[in-house]
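An example makes the point: we let one protein speak, the chain in one-letter code, the fold tokenised, and here it is:
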Amino acid sequence: MAETRPAKVGKWTEPALRVLRERYLAREGGEVAETPEEMCWRVALSIAAGEARYGRSRAAVREIAAAFYEVMVDGDFLPNSPTLMNAGKGNGLQYSACYVLPVGDSMEEIFDSVKAAAIIHKSGGGTGFAFSRLRPKDDIVASTGGRASGPISFLRVFNSATEAVKQGGTRRGANMGILRVDHPDILEFIECKLDGGITNFNISVAATDKFMDALAAGTEYDLVNPHTGAVTGRLSAKEVFERIVRAAWRTGDPGMIFIDRINASPANPTPEIGMVEATNPCGEQPLLPNEACNLGSLNVSKFARRGEDGDWSIDWDEMERVVRLAVRFLDDVIEMNPYPLPEIDATVKSNRRIGLGLMGWADLLFTMGIPYDSPGAIDLADRLMAFVKEKSHDQSAKLGEERGPFPNWSLSIYANDRPLRNSTVTTIAPTGTISMIAGCSSGIEPIFALAFEHRVRQPDGERVLTFVNETFERIAKERGFYSDALMREIAKRGSLDGIPGVPEDAARIFRTSHEINHEWHVRHQAAFQRYTDNGVSKTINLPNSASEEDVARAYLLAWELGCLGITVFRDGCKGEQVLNVGIGTKENVPSAAPAVIRPRPRSLNGTTYRTDTPIGTAWITVTETAQKEPFEVFVQVGKGGSDTMAVAEALGRLISLVLRLPSPFTAQRRLEEVISQLSRIGGGQPTGFGPAKILSLPDALARTLAEHIGQVKPLAEPPVARGDGRKQIGDLCKECGQATFIYEEGCKKCLSCGFNEC
């Protein structure tokens, strides 16, 4: 393979090489056994072999393989991760990232789906499920005379099965669970993640047009038993929507998909065959039961060209060339893909869905000098995606002439138009680690951070590596405001906000995700959706301070602008309830028997402290009894559901238990012992200087508790750039330990090592 591959080599960044070595390159005896170029050639040859099925000669197949290789090595186009990982290795693993499986209303059908999901998860795929066909909780089961346990109980079964596969030593499978808004169990579904028990699923409510109309009119809508078709009750659309918003504000779930809009759009090109009920785990790919998505992405930042006058424009001719090659590549994937189940193989080849999307959008805007949150960015998104749709559909039609249309074409919405090879052609999917390999920004997302620090422990000490967005670094050097000191300061903060000496227009253009109002996130999603057959993966990032009303406005704007669905992620969501503990009237604490844990009173007063730690801002709440004795401690740092938050919550629970257990010591004395144990515990990334120096989260907690009981004086309110000014970029990565594990495009990934849970 290495002897015959083309001579061109790639330009790989250090993060790209790291993620390639750890996730993608073939291994022998546990050691990496191929270069990135050999990987690209392996994939190119394997996928181009599909051309031989349509009469291509060996020389022609090799010529097409060389063209596939070139666009991958140049970083112009990359397929989804499973194709890069598995194509050409002969390991029998699929090349698709995600699937939708049917969940029928019988025990046999339900557990057939559990089994199919386990087979898919075993090889790293993700799955989507609609639980809408399941009869509601307490419905009578005629065959046994018993009562149905309802869809949420089976959602928990699927969640546990995923956990078991994960514990078996493979990457955790991602899932999407969907329930129609008119299902009688919808309220239980909306709030099923509030207790933190369902950890392997994203969930979304399938909102119907009738529901959205009732919401606009302020009226009620019908609940329908899917087993009998009977109306079982009515609910206020406004109250249901408010519950959706409240749960999403707290946990990020549920999202919403507009199911009737999906089925009336090109996202369901074969409505005579069946209705779409569910999407893939990140929500951008509606699929029929037993369908899979074959996805790939253009790196649009590679098509920017500088003219002689110094102005930037897009090379539309080169983009068209790569679009056409990418469509051919993705159609060939369908031929060569070893699907995990025969039902999936048959459904995929009947409809031949592909999803060509893009990445590098934020980098393109940086290069063109266009702020993400501006009408100019929306206009360019319209123009660019319209172009991609036009050329990709034309190429699919050419393949249809060459190879024949997709088998269900005569039953499709295109039956009276030019035959297409593929029932859908475009999808904007999460680009996760493939954007790291291509060295560009993720999907259509804004940059999460302009720079970040990666700390590497070595025998001779710790080495600090500063990673800077390449496009920003290039432009900063060209414009003369680059310096190592500036890059280090940006790495601490993550953005240009508040840094003196940065040109005003640069601060306007180089904005990060959390600096951009949620409205612009939604408007970008809508602009790309207008010219996308399937859906658009987009995380609507909200600051921690966002209100439930902000979440509601984002959901309604997505509906108004024509999006197929929406997911929001409020920084620090889930676990928020602990911040409000203690707000209420004082009550006397009932006396407890000496040998039992003191029960929690109905209400307690408390004080919440904000403190900077090496892994981000911590919120520490100490509640007190009516006698002013410490009773509980709550600790929040990082995002809800994250490992960082889990550790913080564990610290708080254990301290609370110490305070509530029977003891001859007073509560204050016990807290003093806790402080003594936690104080000065060291970590890898201390923050602050002098008296304000904090070594770790436990050290920060000890300092705060000491302040609460009067052991130490409160520090003066710090300036805007606190301590060393470091801003946490993300959660702690469970593989490399860096605080660069972020939520983007509907999935989690590490900016440092490439580990992901997509």
Remarks:
- The chain is about 35% helix and 15% strand.
